[in-house]
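From the shared-data thread, chain only:
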Amino acid sequence: MHGFGVEVGRRLGAGDLVLLTGDLGAGKTTFTRGLGEGLGVRGPVTSPTFVLARTHPSLVGGAPLVHVDAYRLGSALELDDLDIDFDHSVVVVEWGAGLIEALAESWLSITIDRPHGAGEGAGDGAADGAGGEADSADDPDEGVEPIEPRQVALIAVGGRWA
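Structure, as tokens:
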């Protein structure tokens, strides 16, 4: 998820909005951490659960990243009350389905689905992007935590993405 976020972040600019949907632990914040890296913003990017929104200024002269956790918001009006500068920022909204549609004409909708009930050894043995590949040439999986594969659906909505 981190590596995917880096790649997406490299393609975003001021005015872009990303809606993230997925269960707890699906990788929404890990994706956003990578997106912040791709944008070149000041970190660390962490979940804004208790503050609702965090702004990460650019270190490379680009747009800042505004990371929003809309889980506790009840309406688009409450999201609008956060006074986010959508036009001059890259905005990522977790748990924002049903809220951002009233505030924006274009966005990327990314839904992350992870398997449930996978046991020890699940996954494909690849690193999650945080630590890179294993160092051992004899055993490429040595030192790498097994991960559960994610299924990701990316849908572009609106004229920005036409």
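The CA atoms of residues 52 and 72 lie 8 Å apart.
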